[in-house]
């Protein structure tokens, strides 16, 4: 399984796994070359996000294979033992 993110002007968007990256890249490139405009994104946890893309916008895509990442599971007792250090606030 792959996980893709879009970084746009310093903001990171986790893209929905059904997003076709090549199509999104083409759409963003055409939008920037035409002077700018809004592009809709399917993002994880939201219905969609609408972002403004212009010729000066910094855009990067990252795709990671998440099927081989190690899974860390904590028992309830281990999860409670974390010291967060927020004392005295």
Task: Explain what you see.
- By secondary structure, the chain is an alpha+beta fold.
- It is 20% helix and 31% strand.
- The chain has one domain.
- It has two helices and five strands, in the order ββαβββα.
- It has a three-stranded antiparallel beta sheet with strand order 2-1-5, with no helix packed on it.
- The radius of gyration is 18 Å and the shape is elongated.
- It starts with a strand and ends in a 9-residue tail after the last helix.
List the helices and strands in order. Answer: EEHEEEH
Question: In terms of per-residue confidence, which ranges show pLDDT below 50 for 5 or more consecutive residues?
Answer: none
Sheet having the most strands: 3 strands, antiparallel
Radius of gyration: 18 Å
Specify the helix fraction band: 10-25%
H/I helix tally: 2
- Tell me the count of domains: 1
Categorize the overall geometry: elongated
Overall mean pLDDT? 83
In what order do the strands lie side by side in the largest sheet?
Answer: 2-1-5
Please report which band the strand proportion falls in: under 5%, 5-15%, 15-25%, 25-35%, 35-45% or over 45%.
Answer: 25-35%
Distance between the termini: 42 Å
What structural class results from the helix and strand content? alpha+beta
Number of strands: 5
Feature tags:
single chain; 89 residues; alpha+beta; 3-stranded antiparallel beta sheet; two-stranded antiparallel ribbon
Write a brief structural summary.
With 89 residues, this protein is an alpha+beta fold.
């Amino acid at each position: 399984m792959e996980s893709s993110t879009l970084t746009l002007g310093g903001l990171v968007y986790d893209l929905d796994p059904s997003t076709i990256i090549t199509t999104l890249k083409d759409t963003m490139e055409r939008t920037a070359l035409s002077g700018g405009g809004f592009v809709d994104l399917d993002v994880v946890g939201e219905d969609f996000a609408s972002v403004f893309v212009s010729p000066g916008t910094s855009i990067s895509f990252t795709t990671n294979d998440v099927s081989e990442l190690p899974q860390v599971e904590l028992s309830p007792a281990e999860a409670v033992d974390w010291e967060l250090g927020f004392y005295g606030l």
